[in-house]
Amino acid sequence: MTAASARAQKIGRLVLFVCAMGAMSGGLAVPLPDKTRAPVVNDVDRLTLRESILRAFGRSPEIARQAAQVGVGQAQIDEAKSVWYPQVGLTGNVGHSRQYDSSGSLDNAMSYGITITQLIYDFGKTSSNIKQQTSIRDNYRFKLMSSMSVVAEDTALAYVEVKRYQALIDAVQKNIVSLEGVYQMARLRAEAGLNSSSDELQAQTRIAGMRSTLEQYLAQLQMHQAKLAVLTGAQASRFADIPPGLAEQPVSLDNIDYSMVPAVLAAESQQQSAEYGVDKARSEYWPTLSLQGAKTRNQTRNDAYWNDQLQLNVDVPLYQGGAVSSRVRQAEGSRQMAVTQVDQAKLDVLQKASVALASWSGARGREQAGGMQFASASQTRDVYKNEYKLGKRSLNDLLSVEQDVFQAQSAEITANYDSWSAAVNYAAAVNNLLPLSGINIGPANGLPELK
To answer: Are the beta carbons of 13 and 441 closer than 8 angstroms?
Structure first.
């Protein structure tokens, strides 16, 4: 067994076990398509990122299709192996048949019997076909794992967006509370004759503006919740924190393990399949040896007799008009194309990881700057409030610093969740998203432990 086949079997068991355990743990299933039934979204109290991904696995038609394709690939292997087994058949004929030999002629009215054919050796035709079908089955498995990575990434990104707008809404609500406090101060000072009533109007205008921003964020939150609900089939009222391991994963473009990336493994298995295809095409130049036995009952007009047969058949292709050489050239061309697909898959992984890393680094820098700005603006706000009470600052100064506080906090939140999105993209690129989301691969048989 090749290393690629071993990895394919390991990931295949992982995929099937994850889907099965996800179905059992969450009451999920991978249903057959039903054109008369609309997708159902159920209400749940709380969702975690792990539960969201598992639910998305059970709901995705693409994953169900790829899983069925793996079954087709296994059946193709069994079909290729069947050539090595005896081929047994029944024969029967009814009608006039005349045979001539040295003793005269013999008329047959009916014949029936059994034939058995056993392949002895075909110079690699069947073995190459079995290896090729095994590589194709492995390719289906890796494509299934790649589809799971795509679904997990889409689900995780939607989950991050929900958490983002929840944080922004919380920031807006806190700012509205703070502005209402400013309004109360302005109203009390206006009633005491310390400033004009226009200060109250300015504060009310600023509060109205923040309420408009709040409605915009609420609309965005509902949109991303709806997207997540479609992916998972669950509409939650609460969402758990994002696993901190996503932000703590090792990041290095020089140490990407391409042997664990499904897209690269799928391309490599396709290359292996093309190489076996070349071997299979070349083996058609060689003969095929088989042993054939038959026992036939012939019924004449006046008598009946048995005809026994045991022969060694040799099928030698001498000339086929260049068909075999053409198939060899086609197979060699397919192998060359498969080699380029492996390189392209690695470049795609590197590009996606590089972009994610750059976005991650930039977001971290913006988050630190936003945090410093927020701390400075919050301190300034406290000073301005005291000075406004003493009449040393105008209301415009206080409203302006309130806006600075909100903008700094919004920038920090936005940068924080931009870094989470980049972390998800990087983890998906290097096939590390599932374990970081809580779907861990245990030591026994390479199967996951769903804790």
So the answer is: no
Beta-bridged to residue 118, according to DSSP, are 291
Strand-by-strand arrangement of the 304-315 sheet: 87-101, 104-121, 288-300, 304-315
In this structure, what token pair is assigned to residue 169? Answer: 């809404």
Is the alpha carbon torsion for 314, 320, 325, 331 positive or negative?
negative
Structural domains of the chain sorted by starting position, each given as residue range(s) with its CATH number in brackets: 3-84+123-285+327-450 (1.20.1600.10)
d(CA 115, CA 292): 7
Closest CA relative to residue 8, chosen from 63, 73, 79: 73
CB atoms near residue 27 (< 10 Å): 10
Structure tokens at 92: 């029967």
**Of 315, 314, 311, the residue nearest 115 (C-alpha):** 311
Encode burial over 101-137: b for 16+ CB neighbours within 10 A, e otherwise: eeeeeeebeebebeeeeebeebebbbbbbbbbbbbbb
Regarding pTM above 0.85, the answer is no
**Cα torsion at 426, 432, 434, 435 (round to 10°)?**
-130
**β pairing state of 42-47 and 448-450:** unpaired
Helix (H) or strand (E) holding 429: helix 395-429
β-bridge pairing 104-121 and 234-239: unpaired
Reported as a single tens digit per residue, the pLDDT across 339-390 is 999 999 999 999 999 999 999 999 999 999 999 999 999 999 889 888 888 8
Digit-coded pLDDT (tens) for 103-133: 555 666 678 889 999 999 989 899 999 999 9
